[in-house]
């Protein structure tokens, strides 16, 4: 099944629901970054969370950046997700592996660390991004992003994300975001019902592995509350906008002296994109051209 996102409402618009399947894009990230089992789960959960957060934005170019910085051995996680369904990300230490936690699951919380911060930047396309910072709750990602929604956006929210990694790679990945809209937030019975049902979920990936679709999952959770699933699911994909041209532009910022040093000592330059792992090489001729451009611009100014 292709990676996708669906949107829905329930309780006469009082509940907003979004579900994502991110199996293929998480597997692509695993392969690109040579991720360990626990690193795959951590990055996959964060990418799903980023796509869920971005789904509520309005302008087509809107994007969300999530940075997780805990005190665990995984280091930091950085994810960039867009309303257009694209996402990319990486972890600082992709080879970190830990024994399963007490529940026999991948120990994402131990890898990330429960002491640290979650940073969220929303770029709505006007050139003035909105940023928020909250302390980590558990390092398990889902709890931390849900805490951000309640703390920073004052929106009662339930977020469930998961990744199942088998011997052959990522077998299931995705997540679910349920939010009680302001007009319904005062309905304590509705909020309690939603909390109870989400609490009864035994993870998200087991449902996918059992063959359930996003529509099936939402129907089971909200079917008796007037569920309305919006038509035309959105396709999702791992995508990075890096290119050889952008790499050369970044090298140009180093200045003439540094570029000349690369020519003399390394006979060129190599750069790796942190987000997607793509490796770019610049020849001596290309570096010399950058120096020429800098000198020309300097003489003009």
Provide a short characterization of the protein structure:
By secondary structure, the protein is of the alpha+beta class.
Describe the structure.
This protein is α+β, with helices and mostly antiparallel strands. The protein contains ten helices and 14 strands. Strands 1, 2, 8, 9, 10 and 11 form a six-stranded antiparallel β-sheet that branches. The chain has a six-stranded mixed β-sheet with strand order 7-6-3-4-5-12, with helices on one face. Helix 1 crosses helix 2 and helix 9 (256-266) packs antiparallel against helix 10.
The pLDDT mean sits at 92
Computed structural class: alpha+beta
Strand content: 25-35%
SSE string: EEHHEEEHEEHEEHHHEEEHHEEH
Q: What oligomeric state do the depicted chains represent? A: single chain
- Largest β sheet strand count, sense and barrel closure: 6 strands, antiparallel
Please state the CA-atom Rg, rounded to the nearest Å.
22 Å
What is the terminal separation in angstroms? Answer: 56 Å
Count of extended strands: 14
Number of helices: 10
Low-confidence sequence ranges: none
Shape: elongated
Can you give the helix content as a percent range? Answer: 25-40%
